[in-house]
Specification:
543 residues, alpha+beta, Nucleotidyltransferase, domain 5, 3 domains, six-stranded mixed β-sheet, 33 strands, globular, Hsp_70_fam, ATP-binding, ATP-dependent protein folding chaperone
Length: 543
Amino acid sequence: MAGRLGVDFGTSNTVAAVWDEASGQGVTVSIPDYGRLLGHGAHRVPVVPSLIHYAEDGKQLLGDQVLSTGRYHAAGTFRWMKRYISNRSPQKMAVNGRRVSHDEAGRDFLSAVLALAAVEAGSAGEEIALTAPVESFEHYEDWLADAAESAGMPRFRLIDEPSAAVLGYGAHIRPGHAYLMFDFGGGTVQAAVVRVQDEDDRAGSGRYCRVLGKAGDDIGGSTIDQWIYEELLARCGRGDSDEDVRRLSRALLVECERAKEALSEPGRERAEISVMDPDTGSVLGIDLIRGGAEPPGERVVSFEALLDRRDLFSRIDKVVRRALAAAATRGYDEDDLAAVLMVGGSSLIPSVRRTLERIFGRERVLSDRPLDAVARGAAGFAAGTDFYDHIQHDYAVRWFDRKSGRYEYRTCVKAGTAYPTTEPVHSMTVRATHDGQRELGIAIYELTGRRHGGSAGATELVCDPSGAWRVREISPEDDESRSRFWINEQSPMFLHAKPHASAGQARFRVEFGIDANKRLLLTAHDLVSGRVTHRDHPVVKLT
């Protein structure tokens, strides 16, 4: 079926879909040998597990090839790549005499899947659509561009995952109504309030949807796997640095994931996690039960109690409330929502659904397309449906405060700003720092809330060079670096002073705007010569 391709690269699974013009909906694409069917009952969809294995003979195994050959927890296998790419993780793993990063492994995986999907969909040479979390930074979008380029697909469009999901739900969507998309996948939880334009609005703007508010947090199914893993070690009185635990860490994580998935199935109340050390015969494990009391002194863990202790439900509530608060500034409140549409494999966890039902009521919460709605919607976006959107993050100019001796940040674009803009969103004066200065610049930073809220004791799983998994505490410095990203670090100096400037001289007056492609535009006036040196000059791409 030839058509425009949409691909949703996920932490656990990757889904491809093609837009069918005749039916006006996205259709998932099966990729033989690399994919498998996932889901329950009539809602089984083709996915490619987000896995890559580097074999000793130099071959690369992708997706289901890794699972079917028993290499899921083998050395040389990468998983959770999206999560580590998003966090700019420096971790590398020793593979066949070289060190491979998650960025490189993810690029090898995604570029191969893109090429395979294009062949299956008959869309080679066409523009495609890729998806990104609402909390992603520009570096993640640049990484997606590199992967698409490696696959021979330099022409692509980008859409955030919750917005794509609204198109993927298809028949449930009615023009003129507002919906909350709740996307809980392997690496992130996201919420977006979206209004579907009616025919009159669409005719005037060409836009299919208007995004009213969105928010996200850096937790997902892989985070839950980590919590189960940490609980297992604690109940067994073991540490992640123990030699036998290091050897078994990959197998243990696989079993933690399987137990989580088992308790996401209807009717399942218990799942056993058990891994035997082949060298000693000793067993590490726990019984994971869905809910209820945990018998004292036994290795029985209540899944729902564990999620509650880790504040999962309160963090979900905060993400939803942030998206609703943003929508409220545009005149929409909770009562205006026609439905809550759930997507992402982690949304299948029953207690997660109950959390949303407590907020919105059972009748408004739908979960018909949890695994493929994002990819199907991305295919529709590639085919030409569009969104009236707004900027997701705050953007700021960094400046040095001589009094405090510290760098400070002045917001130049606020999160929620609609684009394109017709008036300047910010103006400022640029001063010289020393006599004879020829080039002046502006350091522009992309900001977001701290990923872990600055909470003490926040942890993450990291893979050491040997391939063993260990738990690492996230330092305040790490948390800070993930919340600020210098997006024009490679070219911050672009204002040229002729004649040269003097120290402290107010030399340029600049104004910022945003175009339809989310580029930050700069117009600069030289205050000495009176000339306009730049007019609508693109500085950086916003998200």
